[in-house]
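Pair request: fold both.
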Amino acid sequence: MVRYAKLQLAFDFKATQAELTSARNEWQPHLNTYHYSGSWKVLSLRSPGGSHKNIIPDLIGQSDFLDTAYMGHFASVKKLMASLHCPIMAVRFLNLQAGAIIKEHTDAELALEKGEARLHFPVFTNPQIEFYCEKDRIFLNEGECWYLNANLPHNVSNNGDTDRVHLVIDCKVNDWLKAIIESSGEIAYKKEDVDENMIKLIEELRYQNTETSNKLAAELEEKVKTIRAGNPAV
């Protein structure tokens, strides 16, 4: 399971910074106040139904994602979207203002292995941002692109004096996106535990001692070795 990965996707963050600064935007407070303290705001560019007030990507009964009126202000975002060769769902700016904290939480089912991926494009940030995925601190710099497994526990603190703004794009996983993520040069995997039932199955297959059972046992043994060795991490 991929925990997070830095992706080689071109992003003109300087243009986005300029567009975000010059446009008159109607930011909406994030709805789930239980999960944060301070100010956390959302500017929706693509949402269920196309309303800029729809800031939650998975509203029940609205599966059609459409551009909001604000998308027209951001040519750099539209250019970025055109370079993503996968189905795009929600597109939002998330502004975690100075001093705000997002408490540890999970976003259920939002992971590569579940068929949906959340991409983060930092637009404005500062060195005092502390982003953790499963207690592992990750440094996300302006102009980069990161896939973050939101199905895992994560939390963020803005301990700086400036706001942190990320462009966040939720995508449907296809072969193109899967390849982009898995080919990352900076990727972290979640170590798996060896299922004891797998060990018992290997023993049973070896006991049968047939060509087919020995072949299956060998394949499972290789999987056990990989799991126990752990996957490469950044």
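--- second member of the pair ---
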Amino acid sequence: MITNLAQGVQAFTSNVFLVDGDRPVVVDTGANFDVVEAIRSHVDAIDAVILTHTHRDHVGNLTAVKDAYGVDAWGYDTAIDGVDHAIADEETVQLGDHEYVALHTPGHKNDHLCFYSEEAGVLFAGDLVFQNGSFGRTDLEEGDRETLIESIDRVKERIDPDLEAMHTGHGPSVTREPYDHVELSAQMARQM
């Protein structure tokens, strides 16, 4: 089961997904709200924190979660404070009950990862793409529009057109034809 712990939070934060199952993990920790209490209201323990990328709104609560649960954080670049273990491009990681392939998708930030499970029919898109053709900002440090377009294209080619759910870094998850939203993001990123 996948739960957005940041849903309804009125603070500047990313979404925070609790993926429950055989290996309970949190995907991104958000910022500016008590995510530790939010996790506790659902599960007693988690095995790890998985990071899509390390912008402040995604990792502001990282230390609190690591301290409260005695877990490590996994992300693309261990040179960044708080990232304990590296996840390489194309590496497989278990989130909840399913195996996900990590896809290195820079363009919004150099250490950006998306996680895709064909079996579960789920994509964790981070800040690469959002609903209705929106896509990650490229005006921040490490942002690059052409690189972002290449990353969106890579994800679009990798995911199944019958994708069931896309969980994004901000805004609502997409559960109605999410592949079409990724396709639209690829088109919109080229038009700006």
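Observation on the second member. The mean pLDDT is 97.
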